Fold this sequence. Notes:
Blueprint lengths: L18 E8 L8 E6 L12 H4 L10 H10 L6 E5 L9 H10 L3 E6 L4 H10 L4 E5 L7 H5 L5 H13 L3 E8 L8 H8 L5 E6 L18 H12 L4 E4 L1
Parallel strand pairs: 2-3, 3-4, 4-5, 5-6, 6-7, 7-8
Antiparallel strand pairs: 1-2
Helix pairs in contact: 3-4, 4-6, 7-8
Bound molecules: iron/sulfur cluster (SF4).
The site of iron/sulfur cluster (SF4) has 11 residues, from loops.
Amino acid sequence: MTRQSGKSQSTHVSPSVPIGGVQKVSLVDYPGHVAAALFTIGCNMRCGYCHNPELVLPDRYIDMIPEEDILLFLESRVGRLDGVVISGGEPTMHAGLPALAARINAMGYLVKLDSNGTNPDMIAQMLDEGTLDFIAMDIKGPLEKYQEIAAYPVDTTAVVRTIQLLRASTILYEFRTTVVGSQLAFDDFASIGELIKGAPRFALQRFRSGKTLHPAFRHETTYSDMEFEAIKKVLEEYVDECVIH
Ligand code: SF4
């Protein structure tokens, strides 16, 4: 169900957000809702397992879709879609994101943000403005493994601040980790649990080979179903619900 009215509306001109892809209908990106998904261009990480190199590597960027075209499309779907997922790349790299979320919110859509959690200031702003309904935040691994897994310099204090913001917020949120067998040892999941202790929901995402940002990851694997069940039990010590995708 879409809401009757948005909570706030932007009136000033903001830089547009570079969007490279739109999925017009998704049943899986917004739990419990029929949603459209937008994919922003640019990321401040280089996770080898990433399935969207064309949104992450500047020399492979895909063409941008004008933001106004996307907003017109969303206008035309009011009443037929419940929500809009803003994913990437990393959407919070773009100064225009709060205004975009506000415009989508003002159409009456539920708005979900997928983020790696490196921009707590922007997330705090959007939480204050009331333009988000759900945040899914990546947890790359225990903090000491962030640099290695993201393959890029990461300010882990920013990541921790975003975790704290979500835990203090009243909106729905979940943490999620893509599990590559060679990157995360069994013991790492207790460290991840400590990091996000008290969260309502945690999603374990099986790494799937195929198109990856780093070619070496095409040969990587993940844990077995039985091992995932054991990992889930570890996480359930820390969160209300743990799901495996
Ligand atoms: S998986 Fe990593 S590189 Fe890919 S979009 Fe997410 S944070 Fe960026």
